[in-house]
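User: I'm writing a short report section on ligand binding and want a predicted complex to refer to. Could you take this sequence and 2-acetamido-2-deoxy-beta-D-glucopyranose and write out the structure as tokens? A short remark afterwards would be nice.
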Amino acid sequence: MVFPYKDIVSKASVVLITSLWLLSLSIEAAPPVYLFHICGSNTTIYSPNSTFKSNLNLLLSNLSSNNTPNNLFYNATTGRGPPGAAYGLFLCRGDVTINACHDCVVNASQEIVQRCTTHKVAYIWYDQCMLHYDNRSFFGTMEGSPKVYMWNTKNITEQDRFTQVLGDTMDGFATRAFERSIFK
Ligand SMILES: *[C@@H]1O[C@H](CO)[C@@H](O)[C@H](O)[C@H]1NC(C)=O
Ligand SMILES: *[C@@H]1O[C@H](CO)[C@@H](O)[C@H](O)[C@H]1NC(C)=O
Ligand SMILES: *[C@@H]1O[C@H](CO)[C@@H](O)[C@H](O)[C@H]1NC(C)=O
Ligand SMILES: *[C@@H]1O[C@H](CO)[C@@H](O)[C@H](O)[C@H]1NC(C)=O
Ligand SMILES: *[C@@H]1O[C@H](CO)[C@@H](O)[C@H](O)[C@H]1NC(C)=O
Ligand SMILES: *[C@@H]1O[C@H](CO)[C@@H](O)[C@H](O)[C@H]1NC(C)=O
Ligand SMILES: *[C@@H]1O[C@H](CO)[C@@H](O)[C@H](O)[C@H]1NC(C)=O
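Assistant: Sure. The structure tokens for the complex follow:
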């Protein structure tokens, strides 16, 4: 009987290569995970050859360029005032890498115009980033809407402990946010 060690070795290397590949995937590029989008009302429609459209194209290439001054948040304006100006920003989750953020924003800026083909107002959310553009300046103002609720459908195993940790975390978070805020 011949011991099939060749077979075992090759199977082992397949496993190794596969796990290295998975590892490199998880480090290199977590693909952008689309969640939701909202287009403005049908009263905010632009025509294909409007100034707004060309400003929007500039804005999106500006937001998705890989040398924005800030890496995880950036706001930009193209055009000067109404009716043609376009305002936009992206925000990435604080724990994503600069590369993952950039990939997400590139994807978002392409997807958003396919999903909201002629709207002057659009929002798109991903697991890693969000992007919003508008024909009005919305920078530095608190916005409570639109909003989207999403549920994590996984169960908590230790519910009491979870509630405790959640409460402590949110309290600490609120305190820190307040300490850094302009309302102090
Ligand atoms: C907006 O316009 C689109 C395309 O014409 C249409 O499918 C959609 O129903 C409209 N939405 C509303 C709320 O009127
Ligand atoms: C945005 O576009 C809508 C629809 O064309 C218009 O009614 C509104 O006045 C515009 N807002 C600004 C700030 O220009
Ligand atoms: C494009 O612009 C031209 C002139 O600026 C105008 O005559 C034409 O109607 C526009 N076309 C569309 C589809 O808006
Ligand atoms: C983005 O816009 C700013 C301000 O208009 C400009 O200085 C910059 O060159 C633009 N960047 C890109 C990549 O379009
Ligand atoms: C970004 O937003 C700030 C307000 O939060 C504003 O002062 C600034 O002009 C904006 N930058 C651009 C390029 O629009
Ligand atoms: C955005 O990313 C998704 C998932 O990786 C992909 O399926 C989609 O084709 C991308 N969209 C564009 C416009 O590249
Ligand atoms: C979560 O727990 C509930 C109640 O114990 C159960 O009915 C449900 O199937 C569980 N869901 C998942 C995703 O495990």
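A remark for your report: The first strand starts at residue 34 and ends at 39. The two ends are 80 Å apart (CA to CA).
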